[in-house]
Amino acid sequence: MAMKKVSVTLDADLVAEIKTEVGERGFSAYLNESIRRRRQHERLRQLERELGEEFGPIPDDVRLQVRNEWDKFERQVAEAD
């Protein structure tokens, strides 16, 4: 995938925190992955809106079930690290 160098302005405390975790060389990859996840989230929200318009809203009990399953998955991932 082609890469493009850009200039951005970020909160200094966030930059320091991230660089402490990932190092100077991992900073761009961290930002790239964060932006990629944000875009994926935005696309999923758009799909949810479109499907809601076509088929109606997701029932509350289904939302709760999915949320519980997601929380369980996140706990399992955290325990594996």
Structure, described:
- The structure is a single chain.
- The protein is an all-alpha fold.
- It has one domain.
- The chain has three helices and no strands.
- The two termini are 29 Å apart.
- The model has no long low-confidence stretch (mean pLDDT 95).
Number of strands: 0
User: Treating each run of at least 4 consecutive H or I residues as one helix, how many helices?
Assistant: 3
Helix coverage percent: over 70%
Number of domains: 1
Structural class: mainly alpha
What are the defining features of this structure?
single chain; 81 residues; mainly alpha; 3 helices
Short account of what is shown:
The chain is mainly alpha-helical and 81 residues long. It has helices spanning 12-22, 27-55, 60-80.
What's the SSE blueprint?
Elements: H1 12-22, H2 27-55, H3 60-80
